């Protein structure tokens, strides 16, 4: 997905967890989203992460605000060239909705991971929802020793 010098920068929708999970805190999730954006920008593309923008003026705990923020994100996703999914900490319901929407619109989807620079070190295509369990299982086994 790195652009060639002759091509235009791609608009990349960043999909990663926002709310607290059993694996991460909101602070950790926001840092991860920012790192995904920085790595995407370093590739020469333009990232958009609605969960870094909308909570700055909408209350995510207010169901109406959350719904309107998610709907606004979907409208922007429809204009994007690709969806980058950061699955390091979890797959949330909101992320699943964004993935389903991108699949319905035939927007290319990639599971991405970062190194410590941050730079994108893995970009795995997601072609169907059936790819998600395989990718999640791979991520959950990272760092575990095999017998």
Question: Would you kindly provide a written description of the structure presented here, covering whatever features stand out?
Answer:
The protein has five helices and five strands, in the order βαβααβαββα. By secondary structure, it is α/β, with parallel strands linked by helices. The protein has one domain (11-140): Rossmann fold, CATH 3.40.50. It has a five-stranded mixed β-sheet with strand order 2-1-3-4-5, with helices on both faces. The chain is globular and about 40 Å long. The termini are far apart. The model is unreliable at 142-147 (pLDDT under 50).
A few lines on this structure:
The chain contains five helices and five strands. With 147 residues, it is α/β, with parallel strands linked by helices.
Largest sheet: 5 strands, mixed
- The secondary structure category is alpha/beta
- In whole angstroms, how far apart are the ends? 35 Å
What share of the residues does DSSP label as strand, in percent? 15-25%
- Which descriptor suits the 3D outline? globular
* Number of DSSP strand runs: 5
What is the string of helix and strand elements? EHEHHEHEEH
What is the CATH class designation?
A: Alpha Beta
Summed up, the domain count is 1
Helical content band: 25-40%
Number of helices: 5
List the strand order in the largest sheet.
2-1-3-4-5
Instruction: Tell me the CATH topology.
Output: Rossmann fold
- What's the gyration radius in Å? 15 Å
What would the average pLDDT be, to the nearest integer?
84
Q: Judging by the overall fold, what is the CATH architecture? A: 3-Layer(aba) Sandwich
* Unreliable residue runs: 142-147
